[in-house]
Amino acid sequence: MAFFSMAGSTLANLFKKPATRLYPAVEPKCSAITRGHVAIEVNQCVFCGICGKKCPTLAIEVNREAKTWEIQRLKCIACGNCCEACPKHCLSMNSAYSRPVSSLEKELAHEVARGA
Predict the structure, then answer these.
(1) Beta-carbon neighbour count of residue 53 at 10 Å?
(2) pTM higher than 0.70, yes or no?
(3) Is residue 58 part of a domain?
(4) Residue whose C-alpha is closest to residue 41's, from 103, 86, 99
(5) Is the residue at 29 inside a domain?
(6) CATH code, domain carrying 46
(7) Which domain covers residue 105, as residue numbers?
(8) How far apart are CA 22 and CA 25, in angstroms?
(9) Exposure check for the chain: N or C terminus, fewer CB within 10 A?
(10) Which residues of the chain have pLDDT under 50?
């Protein structure tokens, strides 16, 4: 009997739409309350490091000497504490999700930033 119920379920699913979106081919729809990710205006930043101190997961690293600001997206919980603490208001919560970045792309971005 279990075979017939499984076969019936399989046949029914063959003619239905998929239960999930085909990401990344189909972009997700963001609601108004989606927190998304932290965005920065680097040219306004004074690299004070307050955002990194207020981050509960220590996802933000600020280097004052090298004038670099980096966030580890997998650690970030999108709480918005860094945005509230920033004295220059150069951090904001963007409702769109950031696209995934590979380690190779990160290395290339660092080389471009260093002027290599």
Answers:
(1) 13
(2) no
(3) yes
(4) 86
(5) no
(6) 3.30.70.3270
(7) 34-114
(8) 6
(9) N
(10) none
